[in-house]
Structure formats: structure tokens, C-alpha cells
Amino acid sequence: MNSEKIINCQNVWKLYGNNPEKFINSSEDKSLENIKKNNFIPAVRDANIDVYKGEILVIMGLSGSGKSTLLRCMSKLIDPTEGKVFFQGKSLTDLSQKELIEIRRHKMGMVFQHFALLPHRSVIQNVAFPLEVQGIDRETREERASKVIKLVGLEGREKYYPRELSGGQQQRVGLARSLAVEPEVWFLDEPFSALDPLIRKEMQNEFLKLQSMLHKTIVFITHDFDEAIRLADRIAIMYEGGIVQVGTAEQLITNPATDYVAEFTKDIPRAKLLTLNSLADKSDVNEYSMRLSGNEKIINVSAKILKSESNISITDSNNNIIGSINKDKIIKILFEK
Amino acid sequence: MNRFFSKYKNFLFVLVPFGFLWAIKPLMPSWFFIPPKSCLGGCGSIEGMIPFVGWINAGIKFLKSYEIFGLFTFRELTRSISKGIDSVLNFTEAIFYNGFENLGIEPLPWIMLFGLAIVYGLYLRGWRLALLGGACFFYLALFSLRGIYELSMETLSAIAVSAPLSALIGLLFGIVAAKRKRFHDALWPVLNVLQSLPHFSYLIIVAIFFGVGSKAGVIATIIFAFPPMTRLTILGLKGVSQEIKEAGIMAGCSKWQMLFKVEIPSARSSIMLGINQVIMQCLAMVVIASFIGQKGLGHDLLARLQNLRLGQAFEIGVAVVFIAITLDRFSQAMALKEPERLKEGNFFKRHPFISSSILVILGSVILTFITPFASRIPTEYTISISGQLNSMIKFITTSLFNPLGAFRDFMLVYILMPTKAAFQSLPWIAVIAFVGLIGYRLGKLRLAITVMLFVFFIAASGYWVRALITLYMVCVSLVICALIGIPLGIWASKNDKRTKIVQNICDTFQTFPSFIYLLPAVMLFQISDVSAIFAIVIYSSIPITRYTIFGLRNIPNHIIEASITSGCTERQMLWKVKMPLAFPEILLGLNQTLMFALFMVMIAGFIGTVDLSQEIFRALTFADGGKGLIIGLCVAFIGLTADRLLVAWSDMQKKKLGFIS
Fold it and tell me: pLDDT digits over B286-306, tens only?
């Protein structure tokens, strides 16, 4: 992972209610209870989070947890009540309207839950729309739009209107539109939540395929933990406006920061997610009859381990033994919660 | 007894003080029930407790000679506006029926309008719409023995000016109001008053500032026709989903790009519906604007009606209705038209509509050189059936004279007269207390004060007794409308087929310009309160029927299924489940019916009622601008009072049922 910070949120607050600025600036007690007691709705509470170049950061939470609001603070669709958001080192709140428009025209793309396609425009006109508002001439923009349409697999549908497309196809148009300006940061606000489960899976694969080609910096919102695990490099979990924990899926599962996170992760099949490393007994570096790489996912090697008579040696990427594992641990992971 | 009180406490709260004030009437001085007159503005023609009329007239007089920057007077400004409109009118009139004489260009041949209507109808919806459009122009051209074609073209050329102007003004107001809350809040009450003001009331003021003739007619029409456009524009722009707006911002739209590329196109169907409304309002004004000299169908319809030449009036009426239905269906189809993918192929295949329109235009121009029939059907070939109609009408009225006469007299003597007397005996203080108490019960102090001020205005204006007569006509009509509309709505809501039939009838009836309803009324009942109420009832039964159907058909399906599985019979389902749930909608229907009735009662004044409408017509004759406006405001405030209370009641019921929070 590259460590260049693309987006940097510092103490971002967003409260709804009557004169929340005054409350933030003057109140000593900014606890959740006190916020609610003063009739404010806490959308985002003191969020500190960075997005690194090229990563997929998934913000996860139930509805009303503030994940969409936080995303909109990052894209400056909403003004935070307090705190700063830096985009490539520039503070978004201090930019003029004109500079903001420039950033949006060239560096940001966004995909919406309900697609937000313009109903009076055909597929190609929708995709070319962000280019059109930049004043790019028709021929150039339609050529660029066609390329993106091909990329998302909608070739041949350029002249269709949104109402003639299925939900999955409409969201492909949404993806294409957000990619048309070749943005550096890609915001996706529950892009697949309105789709059927099978289509959702297909779109997730499509999304991963696109990302493997494009290497965008991505902030992805979802309320679906399975989706988060499938897609994320890192996951941020939000609860009532606050970021509870940020980490890889494995970190969240093995080391949940709060009961709330634990509750979320408890139904996730660990074997699919955890690697042998996380179970290895590092004190036992004896050589056993079988060696396995510590980076293997448990689910992939569990059959081998269960068939084996003795313990198994765990190796690092240079094939040096770094620990061992026994069957009991595997059985526990596979069959117990 | 206790149960009785608690069950009916809302009614008692209102009715007891009201009844008490009415009962003590004999003990009280006369100012208690008839608002006193005053000489605040110097005794003369001024009559009310507060001399509103005098104030308005003084205001008009001041404005007339008011100089702007010392350069020109306000009236000179308004007159130059009407001059501008006049020159645009000259242009459209030249296109439709005068021709450009000095250029040697003929007006549009009827065959071209006929052909274009067919092509456009086919393009928009299909052969049925094409047939309607074609039939309309064919009728106008063929039944033109008495010049219906020219009159229609005059009317169309006026609409061709007033409709786009109203739409444009309405759109601009709507956009600004949707963007600026303060402007919205200031505009809203003005729209409310404008839409409940009878049209006659500002005709005089328009005439004072803009003169008379078709140009003044256009101005009066614009004042009347732009409010619905504004409302629908606001509705449309506010209805654009948050996500779509965000998509626009994220694409990097500037403020104007946002408005013109994202918001307005997304609100397209609302805005197009607004244009449809504008066109219909313009048509509704066709007759009314003829009072200040607008030429065209309206003017002749009015003249024939006044001379009781019902056959000819009928023929013109059919022309008005034909034009109205055609324009309505075409503009509706336009509103619903979705953009379509272009077909592959050559120009003709890709643009079938444009190419066939060009063909029609070229073809009809060529035809005019071949035969005179193409440009205008020669008079000797046109027809009129007004003679036959006249004898038919005579036959009907003479053969029905006895039963209809008996019915009319019965209504008058046993129902209308006593009701009228009862209304006229209402003390004004009791009425103010009545609306205030209802307002308080429904919506607390603010609502109570608003409606009390409305009623006080009427009392103070000096037209209290006339207003009571208007109120009586409206209330009687309202009861009859409810007796017709609610059962009809219940019947129609039973299945899709019935609903469709009744809705089609409602659609068609609503398209008729209101003056048309006077025709059958006068035919059947001559000139009396009965004919006025008859006309009001036909026109105003439409909304209550519509809303009843809407309310009954929009009950959530699971509730219906739950009541079926609970073992309800059809009748139990209707009275125990459906009607209570549809009640808020039915109340809104009553509200609309009342608005329609108020509107119609003013027009019915034309066939001789003695309420506020008669006073308006008198003001019209004497060109008393202030009086016209004040009486108009009285009517508007009757409407607004009822509107506020009924809507509040409906909201309260909806809240109780959990439909809104």
C-alpha cells in the first residue's frame, strides 16, 4: 500500500439541529448523550480518518450511522459543522466555489445508490455529461464516453434511455459516468444496495475487475458486512456518527474494538477470512511432516490439516518455519462461533 | 348525558356559541347582524364599515398619473406594454387569418392545420389523437357558415400570444420561488388570492391601465393563467431527487448548468403539465376576456347567449369545446412523451415526424394553388345546423315545459327560498365567531385569526348581504354536488372499468370552458336561481367525484385483504373500512368542489342572480375598478376561508389515521 494520503479528515463533525456550530464551539461535554439531550441529530461525530492512494476504504454501518454523511463531507456535498477535510493536501472548506467545481470536474467521481441518472438523456449523453459541463466538444466527449461504456460492458446500448435498462445496467451507466472524467478518487455510495442479490454479486466482481485495471483511490459505502469483506482493503465501522474502528477485515474479526464490532463480525465465517498466521503458535518452531504458508486462508487448507496425523509447520514467504498449528484450533474455527 | 357531551364536544364547542349569538339576535341592535356603514372616506358612494373601495379607487387614480423618474406616467408604461402585445397579436393574427397583405402572403390554409394536427397526433400518441385533431379543424372549417372558422382563428391567435407569455412568466416566477425562500413566501399568498379571485373582478383595472380589445384580453388572461404554471414549476423543481442534484454537483455543474441541464429537464413532466394548465386557463378566459373586448369565439358566444339564440350559441360552444379538448389532449400527450431512440437509416427514417410535417406543409401550399377548398372552404359549401338546433331546443323546452317548470317552482318555493332566508338572517358576528371557533379547534390561534380576518373583511366591505346570498348558492350547490358526486364516486370505484368510464367523463367535462354550462341551464330552467344552481352543480360535481374515487381506490391493499379475511360483507367493508379511510380525500374533494362552485357562481351572475356576481357585473358596467376588485376579494376570501378550514380538517384526519405525521 502506498502511504500517500489522498483524503485526510480531521475532527469532522456534522450535527443537525438548531445552531449546532454554537454547541460544538461552546459545549464542554460532546458525548453522544449530551448531543441527544440538546436535540441535535449526530450524523458525524469527531471523525478522523485517512484515505490512502490506491486503496479501497469501505465505510460500514447501519442506516442512520452517518456513513453517507461522512462521504458527503469528503466530497463537500455537505459542509461539515466543524473540522477539516483535506483533499490532496488542500483544505476543501477553504476552497472557492470555482476551485471546488474544478476539483469535481477532474478529480472526483461519484456513484449513487439509486443511480441518479438523468432521465431525459440517453446512456451516452449521461456518461458524457460530466465532460459536457466542462465544455468539451461533442465529438471528443462522445468518443471518451464510448470507451468507458465499453469498459463497463454496455456496448451497443449507447442510444438507450435509462428507463429502457435494468437496474444493474443502470448502475453500470452510473459507474461509467463517474469514471468518464478519469477521476483520482472514486466515491461509491451504497452502489449495489438497490440491486438483487445475484446482480449485486455480479456487480461486485465487475467492480473488482475495474479496480484491478484502474487502481483508483476508493471510498465505498455499504451496510452489508459481507460486501465490505469482499471488497475492502480497510474497513471503517461507524456507529451513531462515530468511527468505532478502522482496520482490515482480519483485524476487525480477531481484535474487535468494541462489543458492537464484535456483534457485527460474529456471524462471519472466520475460516474464509483468517490466514494460518493468525492461528499459529509462534513458540513452537519444530519441523513437522507438513509445511504450509502462513498466508494461506484457513478454508483453503483445512481439509489437508484435518487429514494430517500430527501438527503442521507454518512458514513465511521465504519458507522459513515461524510456528506451528494443531488440528484442534482449526476445528474450533470451522465449527464454533 | 356525559357520554353525549364528550362524544360531540367538538361540535358543541362551535355550535353552542353560534346558536346563542343567533338566538339573541332579536334582543340586539341592528349593527349586530348587519355590519354598520360608515362615512370614513367621506360620505358618497362609499358604503362599507371601512371604505376599501374608495381606497382602491384612490390608489388607481394615483397610479394612473404617477410619474416614474419624472419621465413617463405609470399608465404610459402599461399602455406601451399593451402596444407591444398588440403588435405581437397583429403578427399571430396575420398568420392565422389575416395574412400579410403587403407581402402578399395568405394566412395558413385550413388544410395545413388539419394535416399538421393529424401528423402531430400520430407522432405524440397515435391515430386516436390524430383523429381528434383532424376532426377539430374539419369541424371548424366545415361548420363555418356563420364565420366560426375566422372566430376560432382569432381565438387561437390570442391564445398563441397569451399561453407562451403566461408559461414564460409562470416559469420564471416558479424558478425564482424554488430557489429563494423569501420570494416563495411572499409569492405564495398572492398566488392563492389570484387563483381564488373571480376573473371579472380585475377586468376593469386591466381595462383602465391596458385599454380594451384583444390586447387587454391577453393581459387579463396572463394574470389568470400564470399561477398554476408557477405552482407546478415549484413543485417540479422541489421534487427533483437529492441524488440527481448531487450527481449534477459532482459532475462539476455551475449554477446555471445545474438549472438548465439537470433541474429543469428532471422537472420536465411537471413543467409540461403546467403548460397544459396554462393552455386550459387561457381557454377558460376566452369568454370572460370578451367582456373587455377580446374578439373571437368568446365574444360571439356571449352575444348569442345574451340574445337567447341558443342554436347558434350551441354551435359556437361546440367549437370552443372542440378546441379545448384538442389542445388539452395534445398538450397532455406532449407532457407524457418520453424521448425516444432514433431509428437507424436515412433522414426520413430517423426523423419521421419532421419529414412528414414538411411534406404536409409543402403539400398543402401546393393544394392551395390547385383548389380554393384547401385554403378556406367556400362559404356556399359550409354549413350550419343552428336552425335545426333551435327548433330542437324549442321542442324539448316546450314538451318539458310543464314538468320542468313544476320542478323549478317546487325547488324555489320549498327549498331555495327558505334556505336563502335562513342564510340572510345570519348575524355577521355569529359567522365570525363560528369560523373562528372552528379554526381554533382545527389549528389553534393562527388559523382562527386568519379566517376571522377574512370574514371580517367581507363584513367591513359593505357587501355582507350579497355575500350571504353567494354563500347560500354555493352551500346549496355543495350539498347537491356531494349527493351526486359521492355516490357516483362509490359506484365508480368498484372496478377498473367503471373508474375509467367516470374518469373519462370527468376529464371531458372539466375541459369544457365554464360558460358552456350556462347553455343547458338556460335551455331547461330559463333564468332563475334554479338554472344558476343547475349550472354550478354540473360543473362542480367533477372534483368531489374524482376525489371520492381517488380516496376509495388508494386504500392500501393489505387493509382491504385484512377486512375480507375478517369476514366483512361488501357493505360493511364500504362503511366500516373504506369510507373512514377515504374521508380525508373526500374532504379535499369538497374543498375543490366549493372552489369550482364559487368560480361558477360568478359566471352564473351573467344569467341573473342577485348575489356578489351581480354587483361585479354592475361594477363592470360602470367601470368601477375599486368595487370590482373589492367584491372579487370578498369572493376570494369566502373561498380561502373554506379552503383553510377544510384542508386543516383533512390534515387532522390524515394525522389521526397516520397517513401523514
Answer: 888 888 888 888 888 888 887
Residue A220 belongs to some domain of the structure? yes
pTM over 0.90: no
Same domain, A100 and A200: yes
CA dist., res. B305 & res. B298, Å (int) = 10
Q: Could you report the per-residue pLDDT of B318-368, keeping only the tens digit for each?
A: 898 889 889 999 998 988 888 877 777 778 778 888 888 889 888 888 888
Residue to substitute from B244, B246, B250, interface A, most A β-carbons within 10 A: B250
Q: Cβ separation of B341 and A113 shorter than 8 Å?
A: no
Q: What angle do CA B569, B572, B574 make, to 5 degrees?
A: 110
Taking the Cβ of residue A101 and every Cβ of chain B, the question of whether any pair is shorter than 8 Å is answered with: yes
- CA B43 vs. chain centroid, Å, equals 38
* Assembly ipTM: 0.84
- For A77, the closest chain B residue by CA position comes to B246
A77 and B257 within 8 Å at the Cβ level: the answer is no
Residue A310: domain span: 271-335
H or E element, residue B234: helix B214-238
Name the superfamily (CATH) of residues B394-427+464-661.
MetI-like (1.10.3720.10)
Q: Is A22 inside any structural domain?
A: no
Last residue of a domain, one of A268, A302, A327: A268
Q: Using a CB-CB distance cutoff of 8 angstroms, which residues of chain A are in contact with residue B246?
A: 72, 77, 110, 112, 116
Q: Note whether A114 contacts B: Cβ–Cβ < 8 A.
A: yes
More confident residue, B83 or B443: B83
What kind and span of H or E run contains A221? strand A217-222
Residue A127, chain B, CB below 8 Å: the answer is no
3-class secondary-structure state, position B344: coil
The phi and psi torsions of B243 (rounded to 5 degrees) equal -60, -40
Q: Tell whether the model's pLDDT for residue A85 goes beyond 90.
A: yes
More confident residue, B545 or B627: B545
